[in-house]
Amino acid sequence: MKTVREGFPQDFLWGGATSAIQIEGGYDQDGKGLGSGDMVTAGSRNSRRRVTRTLEEGVYYPSHEAIDFYHRYKEDIALFAEMGFKIFRLSISWSRIFPTGEETEPNEEGLKFYDNVIGELRKYGIEPLVTLSHYELPFALSEKYNGWGSRKLIDLFVKYSEVLFNRYKDSVKYWITFNELNCLLKPYGTYIAGGMLSEDSDLFFNLEADSKQERLQAMHYQLVASAKTVISGRKINPDFHIGCMITYHTPYPYTCNPDDVMLAQEEDLINNLLCSDVQIRGEYSGQALRYFHDHKITLDVTEEDEALLKQGCVDYYTFSYYTPFTLSKDPSMETTSGNMSRGIKNPYLKTSDWGWQIDAQGLRWALNNIYHRYQIPMMIVENGLGAVDKIEADGSIQDDYRIEYFREHIKAMKESIKDGVDLIGYTPWGCIDLVSVSTGEMAKRYGMIYVDKHDDGSGTLERRRKKSFGWYKQVIESNGEDLT
Questions:
Q1: Which of 180, 214, 267, 441 is catalytic?
Q2: Which of 57, 86, 235, 302 has the highest Cβ tally under 10 A?
Q3: Low-confidence ranges of the chain (pLDDT < 70)
Q4: Domain range list for the chain
């Protein structure tokens, strides 16, 4: 009989996470094409970002320079190594490899950049965790095919993935196909996750548009592309570990009213689990089919698609966790926002500077719920606190609030491991300050490394260690035991 595991496994993968569009910059260098994220203007908590069809003079696009990882990756990776990272989650920019998505041959200069980044990680013994698509695709594919609204993108994506699999078959072990694939279940996913252009709006988050049919069709094409990519990757290197990535919101019923309880269950089964059911079990669940029926969604699904989904199941489950959501059938309840979603304000929880509610116990609930459904290895590949950081007179950044956030979430992870969850890694989001996808801000800082870059694009780009830097280093050195 197995015994209860105390503490983290000795080979636990501690690290951090980023995405290309939020850190790289170099948007027009060395043959890179325009990506979907390169067409998005800055915004704020009070003003939405815009998507422009051409680059407009005098308009600030945060991704064009971001934090200039393109030129500073050696400095940044050295800092990650100083913290003791075992793994680093990065994404590869599709438009840096295939500038329009349809070239016959990949852009060699783009590949050389990732050769250098992966080589630098390997120099320090850091495992690369590579996301193939993290809210980015060549903008030319948005213009020509309406992004993932077209089945055409499936084979273009597989071709791109195969180039990377072949190039890095001996240097990258861990892969993720699509970031937060279930984002397409929400209206804001139309452009951010699907690269689909709305005819009547240039809003980045077009919350007013009811495009369920379009978004869920795009989601299906991504699910098929993911499955084909998994199948192809295993042929190139059977030792690859290829995973899914889901944005997970722990669903709480606001009351014990059965209507609220059923609503919370529906939220979990559809918005949290629909995509992972397909990627892990190989088919749409009964609840998903009921959802399509009730919303009059008719998907273009072929027999070949169904066979591919069965064959191309992923090896492990990764997810982002920032906040839970409380749900009620009562339309008069006060709502609050979170990572790509909204819910009822929970009176028992604290709230971040950006209105996201904080609940470490919700992470333990999520880990147990997910693992005991699928029973495959799990990684938390995004988790963190966006906050306003202040530089003190002595130059230090005393981000004790971030340390407290991480401390409580790591405690919840330890409890879930005692519960029997096979948790293999943790990569907090924005281990270095980066551009916020939702608002385009730099002021919403997640990092343990401060970057001197501001919302208007000004700044020296100087890096400096926050208090959380040294704290996380001690956490990694002690394998999660020293949380003081």
A1: 180
A2: 86
A3: 199-210, 335-342
A4: 13-477
